[in-house]
Write a structure and sequence with these properties.
alpha/beta, Udp-n-acetylmuramoylalanyl-d-glutamate--2,6- Diaminopimelate Ligase, Chain: A, domain 1, UDP N-Acetylglucosamine Acyltransferase, domain 1, eight-stranded parallel sheet, 4 helices, 15% helix, 31% strand
Length: 311
Amino acid sequence: MKLPRPYTLSEIANLLQCEYKGDKDQIVTGFNEIHRVEPGDIVFVDHPKYYDRALRSSATVILINKKVEVPKGKGLLISDDPFRDFNKLTRFFNPTTYNSVPISDKASVGEGTIVEPYVTIGERVIIGKNCIIHSGVRILNDTTIGDNVIIQPNTVIGSHAFYYKKRPEGYDRLLSGGGVLIEDNVEIGAGCTIDRGVTATTLIGRGTKIDNQVQIGHDTIIGKNCLIASHVGIAGCVDIGDEVILWGQVGVASGLKIGSKAVLLGQSGVTKDLEGGKTYFGSPAEDARKKYRELASIRVLPEIIERLEMD
């Protein structure tokens, strides 16, 4: 998430009421979670397992719960609870707002776009030209939709991320202050859900077609001209290349990459990064030909065991 203006490290520390280390005039231009962090950003880390990754990331400032040496050219914000303070940043710079009318007066709808009855459009939503938004669709805050987009009934775009920290008293949600970008010529089926980014943008690339009842998690990036069939579930922070095909009931774990022109056959489970230009099957998903050979071997295994026992 980009800040409305550059802030200094000391200004952010004062906002969070926490200690800082480094140049007090270090410039901060945004904040992001680790998967989408850029130079100028604040990133938070609250587990020793991820300290090194955060400290070596592109982030300019690290919000951390341990006093460590300041990396060259960076700053630290020392907090007893970085998760809580990261939420403070979201509340301050992009607080959640709720509409009292079906279509916010802060939304923009392009020429030639059809919005059927019972559609809800939130604040800072931009919809391009010649789109069709069917009845029952909910387009929540900070969503941008290009031209010639079709969204079928009862789809929800821009819902909050499924991202929690477990505490003794229960689960604490990481607030979502990012957005959703749907490029031109995208078609989205009925009953789909696309989560907004936590601090960045969930992106659906130009020309991609999405079937009914598909879930796409926060900060996921889907390339151009992809096909995604019904009941696919994609977790947060996934990077999917161009012209990828995900057939029915494919599941993709968080933080993974799928290369361009990869094909995932039905009911496959993706648990690691996959190269592009190949066809995959199974759970965990592997090269389809290899997986089919394994299945064929398993089918004849009882016969082999029986023969060995007879010998």
